[in-house]
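Bug #77: duplicate submission created two jobs. Keeping one. Sequence:
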Amino acid sequence: MLLPSMASGFPIGAVWLGQLLAAAWLGVAVLNWLQRRATLGGIYGRPIVPANLALYFVSALSLMRVLRGDAAQPWIRPAFLVSAVLAVSYGALLLRGPFNK
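Kept job's structure:
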C-alpha cells in the first residue's frame, strides 16, 4: 500500500500495477546479483549492460516527463538524477566495452 501514499490520487484497486513494477525491478536486481563477478561488456557480459541501460533510460525518461508537470513530488528529482546518471554510465559502458583490469 506504499504506492497510493506516494502518488496522490492513485486508486487502491490498481495496487497490482506497483507489484508488477516491483517484480520487474526484482528481476533486474537478481540478474545483476548473478552477474556481479563477471566483467561487464564484451561478449560474455553484454546481456546485462543493455538490460540495465533500458531500465534506467526508460526510468529517467518517465521521471523527466513527471518533472515537467506541475504536481511533481519532492522525491522524484533525486530519483531522476540517479536514473539519468546510471543510464549514461551504462550507455558509455555499452559503447566502450569492458574496463581494463
